[in-house]
Amino acid sequence: MTAAYTSDEMMTVAAARQLHNGTVCFVGIGLPSAAANLARMTSAPDVVLIYESGTLGAKPDRLPLSIGDGILAETADAVVSVPEVFNYWLQPGRIDVGFLSAAQIDRYANINTTVIGTDYRHPKVRLPGAGGAPEIAASCREVVVVLRQTRRTFVDRVDFVTSVGFGRGPGDRQRLGLSGSGPRVVITDFGILSPDPETCELTLVGVHHGCTADDARAATGWPLAVAPDLATIDPPNQEELIVLRRLEATKGA
Amino acid sequence: MAEIVSLSEGIAAVVRDGDTLAMEGFTHLIPFAAGHEIIRQHRRDLTLVRMTPDLIYDQLIGMGCASKLIFSWGGNPGVGSLHRFRDAVENSWPLPLELEEHSHAGMANRYLAGASGIPFAVLRGYVGTDLPAQTDTIRPITCPFTGEVLTAVPALSPDVTIIHAQRADRKGNVQMWGILGVQKEAVLAAKRSLITVEEIVDSLDPKPQEVVLPSFATTYVAVAPGGSHPSYAQGYSLRDNAFYTEWDAISKDRGTFLRWMEENVVRRAPAA
Predict the structure, then answer these.
(1) Less Cβ around it within 10 Å: N or C end of chain A?
(2) What ipTM did this prediction achieve?
(3) Do B238 and A70 touch (CB under 8 A)?
(4) A52: annotated active-site residue
(5) pTM, whole model, 2 decimals?
(6) How far is A100 from chain B (nearest CA, A)?
């Protein structure tokens, strides 16, 4: 049987559904950018997209390849410098939702995008690094993380904390003085995880159509908690798929 | 006042072996032509500074020009890894590369402090991450007014900053518009500067959201049409997204990379 949509499409649609009219969203490149623009073209026409290149309120009609493609500046309400993006817009808490991806995430939603391997000076894999992520994770009102779920990406402890989720558990964000509330949802190819309100531990709260809690458990490097009222997530509808495919066809054009 | 020179004269005058060199341009207006001229002039032992090393530093690192990198995000945007950067860090090829690693917010504030002539900048950042343990230039600081503990990062004051801009007038005043990243701060933070431009014009008619760098604030201006390719200059060119994708295969293998650089950079004459 051939699925009518791919797991990337399911993840993108699930991410787009996290955004609402008026939400001010800090957008990273790749899947988050596709999701944010999908939301803008379907359910949330007044979502505000901020790219770290300094384009505030960008309304691209095609998907950019980088966070600084010309189409972003040409369609933005304002174009500001990079120091201004971080100091005036992100740091004081003016942004509602920050999208992040990760090479590794742990049970407390801490994120690694720096190195694979525990020796920073001699890494097994050198990843791109922090970019805007540490301060996005600290200062956006909430964070949405999107990544594929495998035993390599969902690990008990990340090799390097690039961006803080819930640290080592309850109360850590407050102790560290992080103003945002941290990762609210983690979207994977199996479903959606959210931090448990008591323990802050990532808990499976929903599965995509055709996926089970056991599938997600098998792809997780710690004993994964599953919500008692586990939801099944609606598959992409026709409109979401048509708009998303039209957008993807324009990427980098 | 900025002196208008050729690109090769400009690079020879501002970049010396062992310098701390910043080449900025956030996706837009990346000074590739200048980077290629540095490679042709065989500069060595550079400390390269740039928020997003991008293809330009992948090339300089792979060609052995750098001994240290100060940065915040080292990937090929929307494509994947910077293979020359990774090979240097993971395998010390062609040379070991020392890293001084920050976040974007930290780098931007370091340039701001440099441009402002103060020794450090303060931000809310890095707290709870593993970066301060690896990077000596991230330290806690207590606010003297509230007692709150924040993060301090030292000013960046490069020996030289190089950027690309749309145009300059005959006196060397430089005008740029579109996504301008941290270029103004990087130029004002530096001891010397070189700005390559698409063209020199008689007068700079206003553009939306422009930044003008007055001639007295810069050292050299050189004409380098198309000098930001494969990035772009708004109003002059489009980002060559296909090349960014092709770079993945060109740069993956050391031999393919060296052949490509030899044919397309080393043996190419600089723009007039």
Answers:
(1) N
(2) 0.95
(3) yes
(4) yes
(5) 0.96
(6) 14
